[in-house]
Amino acid sequence: MTPTLPAGYRPYPYEDPFEDHVGPFGYKVEDGRITFAVQTDERHRNTGGTVHGGMLMTFADFALCLLAVWDQPGEHCVTVSCHNEFVAAAQPGDLIEASGEVVRRTRSLTFVRGQLAAGDRMLLAFSGIVKRIPGSGRQL
Predict the structure, then answer these.
(1) Rounded to whole angstroms, how far apart are CA atoms 110 and 138?
(2) CATH number of the domain that 72 lies in?
(3) DSSP assignment, residue 61?
(4) Is the full-model pTM beyond 0.85?
């Protein structure tokens, strides 16, 4: 079975072999806000039968970076720090969505916070800082 993006979500216009391996991760923009999604499956399961925490942190890092740059034409970024608080377990088969906001943007850094959820169930809260790299990214 080839993993697919959830309905209504599109692939982000860049190549990242690791994210492609564990994803695909998708995005959509509605009402001036961007959200992200991944459809989990048995590949994401840990030995306890739930979605692996490393998978959730990988998806949080993806969302952290793209929340920081999606509305900054041509900008790219790298993660400086990413803090994750696990709130609830995800189950293989869950559609996990990420949302968040930019808290502050300086000349060289962007501060972001957000959350991962499966439906109404919050799974993980994240916050982080990314280093801004102007002029090297792709636009939506």
Answers:
(1) 18
(2) 3.10.129.10
(3) H
(4) yes
